[in-house]
Every structure is written in C-alpha cells, then in structure tokens.
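Consider the following input, taken from an annotated entry for Anti-sigma factor antagonist (Edaphobacter acidisoli).
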Amino acid sequence: MADKELTFSCTQGAREDVVILRLSGPFTLNNMFPLQAEMRTLKPPCLIMDLTDVPYMDSAGMGVIMNYHVAAQDAGHKFFLVGINERLRALIEMTRVDRVLNIRDSVETAEASA
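Applying the prediction step yields:
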C-alpha cells in the first residue's frame, strides 16, 4: 500500500527569529523528498518542527530530522520537535536520539526555550 501524501507548511513563530514547520501525513521514504528539499533552504535561527499530524515515521524520516539537527547545530541554530505521538516517541527512544534531539510538548514551550 502506498503512503498517503506528506504535506507541510511554514509559518512565522511568535518571535521574529522562529519558524514553525508543520507536517501532516506519514513521514516516510516514499514521500520525504519534497520536505527534504524545503528543509535544505530553511536556515532560521530557530526551527520548530510540529509533528502533531504525523501518524508515523520510518527511518528515512528520522534521517531527515537528524540531518537537519546536525546542520542546525553546526550553524549555531536551534531545532525543536513538538507534537510527538506515542508511535513516534517509540521510534525516537528505540534509536536513542531522544538523548540528542530537543523535544518539547508544544510549540509554545519550544518557543519559550528558544
């Protein structure tokens, strides 16, 4: 069965230096390439990726997140994940990247941490 479409949108955060990237749909190898291309152009001082509407993610989706995390760190930028459901949390904890990623409960708490 083919994956449903992954859609995404960028909006300005409460502060000028914050961009919120909202994803909707499964985040998998079959549908990650448009998002990956967009993320290569995103270089705000703080990016918050909202995964509230992402039902599941595979290792390719995790790879996109980790690549952006490393690039943001190298540039001295902040990167937060919010809206993680139990299925996503299980993948993040199983791969032990919860130890390096900045995960917050909501966009608001991420912005307060920025």
